[in-house]
Structures are given as structure tokens and as C-alpha cells.
TrEMBL record:
Record has Secreted as a keyword: no
Protein name (record): ABC transport system ATP-binding protein
MF GO annotations: ATP binding; ATP hydrolysis activity; transmembrane transporter activity
Family: Belongs to the ABC transporter superfamily.
Pfam families assigned to the protein according to its UniProt record, in alphabetical order: ABC_tran (PF00005)
GO CC aspect terms: membrane protein complex
Amino acid sequence: MITVTDVSKVYQSGEVETHALKKINVMIENGEFIVILGPSGSGKSTLLNVISGLDTVTEGTIFFAETELTALSEREMTKFRRDHLGFIFQQYNLLQNLTAYENVQIGADIGQNPFPIDDLLGKVGLTKARDKYPYQLSGGEQLRVSVARSLAKNPDIIFCDEPTGSLDEINSKKVLKLLQELNTAYEKTIVVITHNAGIAEMADKVIKMNSGEIIELIYHDVKKDAQDISWG
Ligand code: ADP
Ligand code: MG
């Protein structure tokens, strides 16, 4: 699905050059659940950002199926992102004057949503919160709205950069389990940066990074059973 070949990224700020990615080679297969692990500053976000076209590469190529993302103009990339890619951010980017339902509706309006919105809200455990506004929801609930919104867009792949950063242990586990379930039940390819070692064990592939390099690629043969999450 995605092929990253010899990708380097150098950030230049004044006299200082940071080699954030050094000749990265990696593939993302359709339907995979991928976890990126590594210490702070190792290049995880940069890798996610260049793969998803939020940032440009300094060298190398990235293909998404037959499309060379590294050859697209900014405008073409924006369109490609809208049509094919989903994002879940740590700051959930919900619209404050819209309810949970309406925020998910926004995702559906952008993409080709094949799922009833109430089903999506049910999937993320927010049936009762359907008509609440973001300020009436906990952090975990807001994150789940953003998960449902990204699903409603029906992207080919969903990128998450430390989505549970501000949640407690129990809630972050649930959200990561939810992402895993989207991977199995909706067959979404998911790439997630997380520190949660337990979730890394459930990934098909773990990309371990350090100092801008992939130091280890771990493949797991995980059994994918759909599981029910109790949201409490
Ligand atoms: P991680 O997500 O693993 O914490 P990042 O990809 O954010 O790491 O950063 C990798 C390196 O690139 C770090 O040294 C960081 O300081 C540097 N960096 C990231 N973004 C920028 C930027 N916009 N300008 C300059 N340096 C950056
Ligand atoms: Mg980061």
C-alpha cells in the first residue's frame, strides 16, 4: 500500500541542521496495524508526517499504491489527503459549537461515509453522548468522537500521533483497543505512535526508531478476534 524508499528529512533552523530521518526504508501493507515506538526526538512524528504528506521529504520517495506522493504538488497532496487519509490528533480538533453527532457528521460530509452515524457513535461507546457538546465530554470521550469522525470519512488509512497522550492508563488502553478493533472490524490500515508496550504487542508490525533510523522491525503474527470494549 505504502512504500517508503531511502527517505531522509533534514530540518534547517538558522545554522542548525537536524537529521530527523536518515534513509528510511519501510512498507505498510493494506490492512496492517502498525505501531511506531521510540524515544522522544527519534523521528516518529516526522516519519508519520512525511508518510501522510503533512510534511515534505528532503530526499527519497513515498508511493501510495501507484501514486508517488513525493511528486505531488501541495494542492494535489491536500486533495489526496482529503480523499484517502484519516488523522487522529492528540488535540482532538473538535468543533466546539457542534454536538458529538454533528462533529462526526462533518467527517461524513468530507468523505464517502457508508456507515450510519449513530452506528459509529455506538461503536465508540458514545450513544448517550450523541447530543452533547465537546465541553460536556471527558478527554477520552472527545478523543472517541474524533475517532468516529475519522471513520465517517472512510479513509484508506488512519494515522494517529500519540492519540492517548493526555489520557489515563485505563482510557488510553481502551482507545488503543478501539483502534485495533477498527483495524479488524472495518479493515482500516492503522499507523499509530504510542508508548504503550501492551498495544505494541498487538500490532502486526512494530517500527522501532532511534536517532532518525529504524533500528528494528518486529513482525507479529497476531490473531485478530473482534473484541467488545466496555466503556463503562
Ligand atoms: P519524535 O516524534 O520521535 O519525538 P520528531 O519527529 O518530532 O521526534 O523529531 C525528530 C527530530 O527533529 C528532533 O530532534 C526534533 O527536535 C527535530 N524537529 C522536529 N520538527 C522540527 C521542526 N519543525 N524544525 C526543526 N527541527 C524539528
Ligand atoms: Mg512526536
